[in-house]
Structure formats: C-alpha cells, structure tokens
Amino acid sequence: MGSNSFHLVIAREQDGSIQLLHKEKQLVQLADGLNDDNLLSEEAMTRGLACLQDFKQRFSAVPGPRVRLVATHTLRVARNREQFIRAAYDILPYPIEVVSGHEEARLIYNGIVHSQVLAAKNIVIDIGGGSTEVVLGNRTSATRLSSLRCGCVSYNQKFFSGGKLTAEAFKQAMTAADKQFASLSKEYFTGDWELILGSSGSVKAICEAMLQFHGDELITLPRLKQLRQQLINWGHVDNIVLDNIEKKRTHLLAAGLAILTSFFRRLPILSLTFANGALREGVLYEMAGIETNSDIRQRTVDSLAQLYHVDLPHAEKVRMTMLNLFNAVADEWQLQHWQRTLTYSAILHEIGIHINSRAHHKHGAYIIANSDLPGFGEAQQHMLALLIGNQRKKLDLERIETMEPEQKLTTERLICLIRLAVLLNLGRVSGRLSIAKIAASANSISLTFAEPRHRFSLFVKDLQREQKQLKSLNIDLNFSFI
C-alpha cells in the first residue's frame, strides 16, 4: 500500500524461485489526502479501501493463502492511520505492517537482490510517492539504509500543483530535495560504487523518456537536464507527449525528475540504470524464505540476544513453556497469527538485565522500542516492546486502554501468555513443575499441575498474586494441583 499506488501480487514458490500468477496495481494516491497536520482525508481513505475491496476479489477463493499487507510512507506518518487500518481489517482480515523507512529500504534492496546480479559495491535509489529510499549494499547484503522525506506525490502536490511545469517550480523542488540528500551520512558521498541503480515507477518512467529521446534507457545528468527543459517547454502536464509512459504516470514525472536530478547533483553519480525488482519482490521472496538468511526477523532476534548477553538456555525454557501454553489456547483465543511474536518475546524477555536487573522488563521494553529491528514492522515492534514491558510485576495498562476493543483483547491475551511463561520458569529450577492440563475459555485460562500443592507453597503465592494482575486484563486465572 504505497503513497501513490496500491499493488497486488499473487505468486507461488516453486523449486526455490517465485512464480508470479497475477499482478495488478491501482492508482490510489493516498499521499494526496495527507494535509500539513499529517491527517489523512476521508476521500483518500475511501479510495484506498475501495482498492482493497477490489483486490480481495482476486484471491478470496485461493485455498490457504499466505497473505502479507505492507504499508509505506503515507500510513507511516498519518496520525489517524488507525481509522484506515481498522476499516481495512474489516475488508481483509490480516494485520497491516506499517514498515519503517529503514525496513522499506531493506525490503527494496532484498527485492533487487533476487532480481539481478549485484556487484561488491552498489547504491540504489527508489523514489516513492511519499519518501525516497537510498541504500548502499555489498552484493546480497544492505550495508546502509536511509529514508528521506521527499516523494513524487508529495512534491507534485507542493511544487507542481495545477499541473504547471515552470523553471521556478523545478528550482524549488530541487532545492528542497537537495536538503534531504545533504542529510545522508558520509558513506553516501564516496562515489566508490560499481553499480548505480534506480527502482520503482518514477525511475522507470524517466527511463522510458530516455528511450524515446535517446534510444536507450541510460540516465545521466545532462539527459535529465534536457528532459527538464522539455517539460518546461511543454508548460503543463496535459501537453506532455511521451508515448512509452502511462498517462496517469506523466503528472508525477516532474516531481520524480526533480528528486532524481538532485540525487545526481548532490552525490557523485555519473549514470544510473533501472533495477528490476523492488519492495514487492522483497516481500515475496522473504515470505517464501528464499534467501541466504531466510528469516530476517529471527536473525535480528538472535543478534539482539547475543548483543545483550541473553541467558539462552533459560530463554529456551521460557520459549518452550510459551509454545505449550500457546498451542493449548491459540484457537480459543484466536491468536494463530501471533506465535512468532510470542516466541521472540520469550527469547528476548531478559535483555533489559544487561542494563539493570531490578526493572529489567522496563529496560527491555525501551531497548526494543528504540532499536532498529530489520524485518519487523512498526506494529510488530511496538507489540514486542509491550509484551516484554509487561512480562512481570505491575501491569502498565495506560497504552492498552487506548486500543480498539479487538486489538485490546488480543493484546491482553498475549500479555497473559508471556507472563505465565515467565512465571512458570521463575527461579530457573529445571523441571520443577509439570503441567498436566491447560484449558481456556473466552475470559479465563486454567492450569492443572501434576504435582502435590504442599510442595510448592511459594509458587502458589506467586500464582495468587498473578491472579490479581490478570484480573485487571479481564482474564481469570484458575489453577489446581493433582
């Protein structure tokens, strides 16, 4: 769900590669509905929701599909995005990943990796509707990720409103883009790249213009300047005559051209070629697990565990307890999509001990909330921080109370499971308790232990304290001993 277009891709994995079965896009221009206060208009939301309704028809009859919904810049910055997300969930009942700028850049590079052979040193630019991602990479690995606040839809709205194409409009747009590119770190200004690539619609449209005027798709600064002058000569988007470019794309050509020209002016770029593949391909290959590191989120979790010296044997015990609880209640509590997030919370629940053991759950939540987590969408990252922050002691209910009813119910149930998994491994005593039975109803969970009660008097007190905490989550904890 991009700032300009929404894209649907249906594919299957076949012998280690992706086979595209169907793809289409609709021009939604979500970013056009974003005002100066970052509020998304009702009209823009309606366009987006209508598109999702159309897309639903394409795969609603596909048996057992794995569905991933990814949203980029406009929903990333929209202050009222939850209104759109709730309505979208009613149409397509799958969680929407509002990816961070860095995550968007990583997925773009991942898509290019699987679409062509890359060199030892690469730089990639992807001009989207609301943001521009610039990535440095070493063959299959991205080494530097950046997301800039300049996009073809937002710049078109700001500098080329009404379709007028003037020298002054280009000057203002390029000056604004110059400031964005100037904010890049010094690694972007070395010029030491073997391959310079551009991806997605804006760059593709400019390549098509190059083909019409010069006979090939190579982009250079002199050619960009010639195209800019031609657009100024035409004077208005309605006068543009470019046979190879879709009419609905021509009205964004000037904004994309201004941003790409600034990229050439600010960085030591001599020429650029178009890259096959981008964010959509990156998402598809990641879903299929077709990459050297097939699970980027697991790699991120493992890296954090190593960085903060997690006690991995103990984390594994908590994880196994978590899975035992999850498998018993997932269907009744409708948590099937949350297994991996719970698993990650179990592995990382003690990372805050690296800072201070006294309130390590709070320290752990802060680390997760403020770290760059490749592979995790914004909502996933917030949920992971929330689970780790509420794994023990007094619950922080302030954020939970502001959630919508369905999201609140899911969150309460997830917190219940992480708390019980941690509690059941309290003290690090191996094999101290054996759970004979786990049962759940809408608002309760019952545990039956295959041990005599009198042998675990302290643990009984722990459970009694936990009953009071879970009661504030509207969950009754029942327990008994054989």
UniProtKB/TrEMBL annotation:
<feature type="domain" description="Ppx/GppA phosphatase C-terminal">
    <location>
        <begin position="296"/>
        <end position="466"/>
    </location>
</feature>
<protein>
    <submittedName>
        <fullName>Exopolyphosphatase</fullName>
    </submittedName>
</protein>
<dbReference type="InterPro" id="IPR050273">
    <property type="entry name" value="GppA/Ppx_hydrolase"/>
</dbReference>
<dbReference type="InterPro" id="IPR030673">
    <property type="entry name" value="PyroPPase_GppA_Ppx"/>
</dbReference>
<dbReference type="InterPro" id="IPR043129">
    <property type="entry name" value="ATPase_NBD"/>
</dbReference>
<dbReference type="Pfam" id="PF02541">
    <property type="entry name" value="Ppx-GppA"/>
</dbReference>
<feature type="domain" description="Ppx/GppA phosphatase N-terminal">
    <location>
        <begin position="9"/>
        <end position="288"/>
    </location>
</feature>
<dbReference type="InterPro" id="IPR003695">
    <property type="entry name" value="Ppx_GppA_N"/>
</dbReference>
<dbReference type="Pfam" id="PF21447">
    <property type="entry name" value="Ppx-GppA_III"/>
</dbReference>
<dbReference type="InterPro" id="IPR048950">
    <property type="entry name" value="Ppx_GppA_C"/>
</dbReference>
<keyword id="KW-0378">Hydrolase</keyword>
